[in-house]
């Protein structure tokens, strides 16, 4: 068939084949397998590890994800038919490309960095939530303590007022018990007309008040 393998690297290879008239209304099958040994392996389609289907409009295909320093066999057939020896080629992959190794390391480092960043963000979010929850709980406990103290102060003031009223009531009761008759206070109002007339004694036992024009209070 004139199948050729070009642009071989450690991980890829380009397979080129001529177009076949029998595959105009069908497709091409590209089959390849690593560690090929012609003495132990057959050309049966089941012997190949991977198979790709390509439209008949194409006449080349890039095989990817190969293993460096490995012997491969690649076959091109029409419509998944079992290949023959003239439809296959054997090739060896090269060493790992330094640029590819560098890119792989960069991708690995980037993946590790992204994973670490996500984990750190999750840990920071958990710690922040815990701190906020703890602050809210302490503030709520402080407010509850202040409310309890205020209630206790009101209750204490009310009890002290009640005790004071009780003491005053008891004092008044004790005073009434000691002085049953009570104490009466009289207000003396000066009568101008009485001051002008002499005061006459009502009985012999009483003394006469001098008529000096002054008022005397009894």
From TrEMBL:
Name this protein carries in UniProt: FNDC9 protein
Biased composition (Polar residues): 202-218
One Pfam family named in its UniProt record: fn3
Keyword Transmembrane helix: yes
Source species, domain of life: Eukaryota
Stretches the record annotates as Disordered: 144-177, 196-218
Keyword presence, Transmembrane helix: yes
CDD domains, alphabetized: FN3 (cd00063)
Record-annotated membrane-spanning stretches: 110-132
Keywords: Membrane, Transmembrane, Transmembrane helix
Segments forming domain Fibronectin type-III: 1-96
Coiled coil spans: none
Provenance organism: Eurystomus gularis
């Amino acid at each position: 068939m004139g199948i050729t393998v070009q642009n071989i690297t450690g991980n890829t290879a380009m397979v080129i084949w001529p177009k076949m008239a029998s595959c105009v209304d069908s497709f091409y099958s590209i089959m390849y397998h690593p560690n090929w040994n012609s003495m132990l392996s057959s050309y049966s389609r089941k012997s190949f590890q991977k198979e790709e289907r390509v439209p008949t409009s194409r006449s080349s295909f890039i095989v990817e994800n190969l293993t460096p320093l490995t012997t491969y066999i690649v076959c091109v057939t029409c419509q998944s038919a079992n290949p023959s020896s003239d439809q296959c080629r054997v090739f060896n992959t090269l060493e790992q490309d330094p640029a590819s190794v560098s890119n792989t390391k960069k991708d690995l480092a980037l993946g590790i960095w992204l994973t670490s960043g996500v984990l750190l963000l999750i840990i920071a979010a958990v710690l922040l939530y815990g701190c906020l929850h703890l602050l809210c709980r302490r503030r709520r406990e402080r407010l509850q303590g202040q409310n309890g103290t205020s209630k206790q102060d009101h209750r204490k003031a009310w009890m002290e007022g009640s005790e004071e009223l009780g003491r005053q009531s008891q004092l008044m009761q004790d005073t009434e018990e000691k002085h049953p008759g009570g104490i009466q206070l009289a207000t003396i109002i000066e009568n101008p007309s009485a001051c002008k007339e002499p005061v006459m004694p009502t009985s012999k036992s009483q003394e006469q008040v001098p008529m000096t024009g002054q008022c005397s209070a009894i």
